[in-house]
Amino acid sequence: MKSLIRVLSAAGLVLGLALAAAPTQAQTNPPPPSAAAIAAAKELLQMKHVESLYANAVPAVVEQSKNELMRTNINYQKDLDEVAVIVAKKLAGRQNEIGDGMAKVYASQFTEQELKDLVTFYKTPLGKKVLTAEPTAIQMSMAYMTQWGQNFAQIVSNELRAEMRKRGKPI
């Protein structure tokens, strides 16, 4: 469960950063991406193994929803456990909607040619290295950011305390 939240948070962060960097499209309504651009985006995302981010989305959301219902319906635990399996099977494959949506986002942010160029790049030796090394680099960067934030928060806290002491209000 925690891994799904982490995965979806990471995916949301990646999409959020991609969308935040893009110019506001409320001013202009570009045409929807072409089928070829979406296909190129899907190929790019497949090369980047993005599907691993949402592969377990359906069972994880079913489990989360079941647990939410169980909080107020504890007497139905056995039934909810059984029904959750049925619902997960019934909705299996719906996680692919995430990949389709991500492809449309990429296709709306990059031209068809840019997407094809990216696919070509990721087939080069350097591109292949980026594909294998980048997840580790991102993970290590996130760990560094977390550690930096913790250290910086302590510095800020110390500074706040020092300033409050100057005012005769030790905390």
Helix content: over 70%
Distance between the termini: 39 Å
Question: Secondary-structure element order, as H and E?
Answer: HHHHHHHH
Q: Tell me the major beta sheet.
A: none
Rg is 22 Å
- Give start-end ranges of low-pLDDT stretches: 1-5
Broad shape: flat
Beta-strand residue fraction: under 5%
Q: Give the helix tally.
A: 8
The overall pLDDT average reads 88
Structural class: mainly alpha
Number of strands: 0
What secondary-structure arrangement, pairings included, does this model have?
Layout: H1 2-21, H2 35-47, H3 51-54, H4 57-72, H5 77-90, H6 96-109, H7 112-122, H8 125-166
Give a structural overview.
The protein has about 170 residues and is mostly helical. The chain has a domain at about 125-170. About 80% of the residues lie in helices and about 0% in strands. It contains 8 helices and no strands. The chain has helices spanning about 1-20, 35-45, 50-55, 55-70, 75-90, 95-110, 110-120, 125-165. Helix 2 (about 35-45) packs across helix 6, helix 2 packs parallel to helix 7 and helix 4 packs antiparallel against helix 5. The longest helix has about 40 residues, at about 125-165. It is flat. The two termini are about 40 Å apart. The model is unreliable at about 1-5 (pLDDT under 50).
